[in-house]
Write a structure and sequence with these properties.
single chain; mainly alpha; two-stranded parallel sheet; about 5% strand; elongated; plasmid
């Protein structure tokens, strides 16, 4: 899915909202939701984000608090917490993308300047 998005929108930043499967990490030593989201983000040059729940919520019920839907509907942080977290992550991605584009533009200008032949200098007459 992430690769299909990249193909359709090659110049747009991609944010992957992943599950944080703490229960499976505790039981099996592996967090597949986090691993798959990070893998997908890496494959398309994107960023993976994960929900952050109110203190103690995920520890008390790791199977019940795994994704952004749980954050919005079960967490005491609710929809406002969801909006803040996703908004902050997307904002950071956009800032990073803007910096990357500026760097590319600077590099393109520098390359153009190097490619242009230097014009011969002329002497100025004083007096």
């Amino acid at each position: 899915m992430a690769r299909a998005l990249r193909e359709k929108f090659p110049d747009k930043p991609i944010v992957i909202a992943g599950d944080d499967d703490k229960a499976q990490e505790i039981e099996r030593g592996h967090n597949p939701g986090r691993a798959k989201a990070e893998e997908a983000a890496k494959a398309v040059g994107g960023k993976a984000i994960f929900p952050i729940f109110a203190p103690g919520e995920q520890q008390a019920n790791p199977k019940g608090f795994t994704d952004f839907n749980d954050l919005a509907n079960k967490s005491e942080l609710g929809r406002d917490g969801l909006k803040r977290q996703v908004g902050a992550a997307v904002g950071q991605v956009l800032i990073e993308e803007g910096r990357r584009q500026q760097q590319e533009q600077r590099q393109e200008r520098a390359e153009k300047q190097q490619q242009q032949p230097e014009r011969p200098r002329r002497a100025a007459r004083i007096g």
